[in-house]
Design brief:
heterodimer, A: about 375 residues, alpha/beta, Alkaline Phosphatase, subunit A, nine-stranded mixed beta sheet, 10 helices, B: about 450 residues, two-stranded antiparallel ribbon, about 55% helix, globular
């Protein structure tokens, strides 16, 4: 069955690929990274050539259990080294033209064409990523689940209901003369309907997993586990982690971010198992770009090409694509060359995880990767 | 000749855009000036510290020589909520979003506040001066890693963002009027530009930073930049960039988006660019032209711009006239904008915030409605009491007129006919214990509408 739920973890800021999956047998790697190169005690070998960053123990374990697919060189044509343009490309699946419509927003529209379920996609964090933006599509965006709702400060439930009733009538998506915009009215609609559903989710949730309080990505994943366990028909969950923009102090910051994520993933997977959701959930981790091959002394600058991960019981674990060649002749302006188009991954996610016709979303057919069991 | 009401309506529009809005009494007072005079007054704030700065420092001790952005926030939010020089704060917020430095990485509240002060001081002056000042700003240097940009290993971060996000800009395809080579040259020109700490005034306080140019770490060789060759220093780059046509267009476009409309109007932006280029990039001149233009004054642009979280929070705070003196509640003002997606003194990235419609997602809309409806129905606030009094005094029992009176008492705002109709039905359908309760329900509903999200 290829109807699973997708959990997106966006590594914002440009994750340094070469210090995530480390080519520890390559002399070139250490030549290019006299300061930022990770040595023996900072890596966990995968095979005789490459290794995980030592802060990724949960990833190593998943890899050994055949649940982690690593896409070694994912990117898009004509790389752009601006965070914003590059992230937009990933968000809109449009490498050549600028668009404000997110590929997952479009997917939500496809999963729920009549916009019946305002929690088909749930974003955790402040502000909706462009990936989920699509006119006419409501996506719930949640800071804290417990306090989610309207007029929560109004005393008396009758008084509150009367106000809610009128507000409900005002937020009808009819576009009279453009203002208030249809988008705003629909956002309001989704907010009102989604709030009712989501505020109930934590009440039903029980778990003995302790997600660390001071780990933001762990807290986001906890929220996702809560909503997923309520089984409200949510198919896409979105969370962000960062900032990976490690121009300076990379060794410290990059390690911290990966150890936070590793702990968070460990908690989340245990929780999914407890909630009986582990077979139905796939985690996808990506970043807008990798970083330059050569370090700049204390960090690395914006580069192109990168690594993505797919994680879950239904994932066929292993290494996909070839690890990029660091030879000067194989480089692209000081960066690694990508070997897998990100839209191949998208079409795989769409068809084999979400059960959506990928051509409808990507406007083109891309050959899928065989990533699912 | 416009009527007195039309003038007040126009002034209220000006104050919502050039500031965070004025309440009924403030507009009454302002209407002694004509519109042009009101614009001139906004454009010529006298730079200086607040009258109640001492009071503020005593109440918010942790914000003095603040360690982090969160500690520093009350210093700024108090001004956003109270300063009479509204444009000074509004333009500072504009530059804070455009020449964005993120407080979390910088982790230096004092430096962030100094930066906002820099925007107050130079934000309405020549853009070239501002760009040079921000290029020398220790917070900016650290944020974009220029302290790690060395003669033999230039760090491209500042050079790239200076061109892409601070001046010349890129188009929707990621292309700019400059090349990768120009980025590298700019980075080389800024090598040696860094900061140094000075002794802290307080035990365990942050070290105030100051600009430091290290000649020995500066790339003192020929560079090619925008087609010119020379041994350029950072200042040369700023000079070349500031008066470039692409910069005029980029800055004027951003001003237009911020003050006028999210719908790009190339013709109006071109007019602004001309004013910019003819006046050595003086922002005050551009804004004077803008605010006095028929386009800005026209009905077609009113109530069509989505309020930023700051517009909403400080607009409400000013409307309800909540704070006489600083208190714990006012220290937390920044939390409200944060929950709506705007963490003051900590923009999410060097790109600042995505403004306009993107401010509003379902989560932030819920925060907006909850915040605004709580504040507007808190009769402990002077401004709320005032609105209720004005409406009740008019002693009208027709629901439609009561709504009109509320809108006027809230500082001449507008909502659509459809929304008015639904609120009218709400009044007709429900029973209220008192006239005051009825008015408060209307106020709560007005601020909860989609209409109220626009200014």
């Amino acid at each position: 069955m290829n109807k699973k739920n997708l959990v997106v973890i966006q590594l914002s800021g440009g994750n340094d690929y070469l210090n995530t999956i480390v080519p520890y047998e390559s002399g070139l790697y250490y030549d290019y990274r006299p300061n930022m190169g990770l040595k023996d005690d900072s890596i966990i070998p995968i095979d005789e050539k490459i290794a995980f960053n030592s802060n990724m123990s949960a990833f190593k374990q998943n890899f050994d259990n055949d649940k982690l697919a690593i896409m070694m060189g994912i990117g898009y044509p004509e790389p752009n080294r601006s965070h914003f343009r590059s992230m937009d490309i990933w968000h809109t699946a449009e490498p050549f033209e600028s668009s404000s419509i997110g590929w997952l927003g479009k997917t939500v529209q496809n999963l729920d064409p009549e916009n019946k379920n305002p929690v088909t996609a749930v974003n955790f964090g402040k502000g909706l990523p462009r990936a989920l933006a699509c006119p006419g599509v409501s996506v719930a965006s949640v800071g804290a689940l417990e306090s989610y709702g309207l007029f929560t400060g109004v005393s008396g439930s009758k008084n509150r209901d009367v106000l809610l009733d009128t507000v409900d009538r005002i937020y009808q998506p009819m576009n009279l003369d453009g203002i208030p915009s249809l988008r705003l009215l629909e956002t309001g609609r989704g907010a009102l309907d989604g709030a009712d559903l989501l505020s109930e989710a934590p009440k039903e949730y029980t778990s003995n997993i302790e997600y660390p309080e001071d780990n933001p990505i762990a807290q986001s994943l906890k929220g996702i586990a809560q909503v997923a366990s309520a089984r409200l028909g949510s198919r896409i969950f979105y969370a962000q982690h960062g900032s990976f923009d490690t121009h300076t102090d990379e060794l410290k910051n990059h390690s911290l971010l990966w150890s936070q994520l590793s702990v968070a993933i460990e908690c989340f997977q245990k929780d999914l198992k407890l909630q009986n959701l582990e077979d139905d959930t796939v985690i996808w981790i990506f970043s807008e770009f990798g970083r330059r091959i050569a370090d700049n002394g204390t960090g690395t600058d914006h580069g192109s090409g990168g690594v993505a991960f797919l994680l879950g019981n239904s994932v066929k674990g292993g290494l996909y694509g070839e690890y990029p060649n660091l030879e000067p002749s194989a480089q692209l302006e000081g960066d690694i060359k990508y070997n897998t188009d990100f839209r191949q991954l998208y079409s795989t996610i769409l068809e084999d995880i979400l059960d959506v016709d990928s051509e409808k979303i990507l406007n083109e057919k891309f050959s899928k990767l065989s990533l699912l069991k | 000749m416009i009527t007195s009401i039309e003038k007040k309506v126009l002034l209220s529009h000006l104050m919502r855009r050039a500031g965070f809005g004025s309440n009924y009494n403030q507009i009454e007072e302002l209407s002694h000036l004509n519109y042009e005079e009101a614009v001139d007054q906004l454009l010529n704030p006298e730079f200086g510290s607040l009258d109640d700065q001492d009071l503020l420092d005593r109440y918010f001790i942790a914000s003095v020589e603040a360690r982090t952005a969160r500690h520093a926030d009350p210093q700024w939010t108090w001004r956003l909520a109270k300063s009479h020089k509204q444009l000074e704060e509004k333009i500072s917020l504009f530059w804070h979003g455009l020449l964005a430095v993120g407080g979390i990485k910088l982790d230096h509240g004092l430096a962030m506040l100094e930066e906002i002060d820099l925007f107050r001081k130079y934000g309405l002056g020549k853009f070239g001066t501002l760009l040079l000042k921000i290029s020398e700003d220790p917070g900016m240097m650290y944020w974009l890693d220029n302290q790690n940009s060395h003669k033999d290993a230039p760090n491209e971060n500042y050079g790239r963002e200076l061109l892409e996000l601070f001046s010349m800009g890129i188009d929707e395809n990621g292309e700019g009027a400059y090349t990768e080579e120009d980025v590298k040259s700019a980075a080389r020109a800024f090598t040696g530009w860094a900061s140094k700490p000075t002794p802290p005034p307080f035990f365990l306080g942050p070290f105030p930073m100051e600009f430091n140019f290290d000649e020995s770490d500066h790339d003192n060789t020929e560079k090619t930049f925008l087609g010119k060759k020379g041994n350029f220093n950072g200042k040369d780059i700023v000079d070349m960039v500031a008066m470039h046509e692409a910069t005029a267009n980029f800055i004027c476009k951003r001003l237009y988006l911020y003050f006028v409309s999210e719908e790009i109007n190339e013709e109006e932006i071109n007019k602004l660019s001309k004013v910019y280029l003819n006046n050595e990039g003086e922002i005050k001149k551009v804004l004077e032209y803008l605010f006095k233009s028929e386009h800005f004054k026209s009905q077609e642009i009113r109530f069509k711009k989505v309020k930023s979280p700051s517009d909403l929070v400080f607009g409400i705070t000013r409307l309800v006239d909540k704070y006489e003196i600083p208190n714990l509640d006012s220290a937390e003002l920044a939390v409200n904008t944060l929950l709506m997606g705007q963490f003051l003194l900590n923009p999410p990235s060097v790109e600042g915030w995505h403004e306009g419609e993107e401010w509003i997602d379902s989560g932030s809309l819920i925060e907006r409605i909850n915040y605004a409806s709580n504040e507007i129905s808190n009769t402990g606030s002077k401004g709320v009491k005032n609105i209720v009094d004005i409406v009740i005094e008019k002693n009208n029992s027709n629901p439609r007129y009561i709504i009109e009176n509320c809108l006027e008492a809230m500082g001449y705002i507008e909502i659509t006919d459809n929304t008015k109709k639904i609120i009218t039905e709400h009044i007709e359908k429900n029973k209220f214990n008192s006239e005051e309760d009825k008015v408060l329900d209307i106020l709560k509903l007005i601020v909860s509408t989609p209409d109220f999200q626009y200014c």
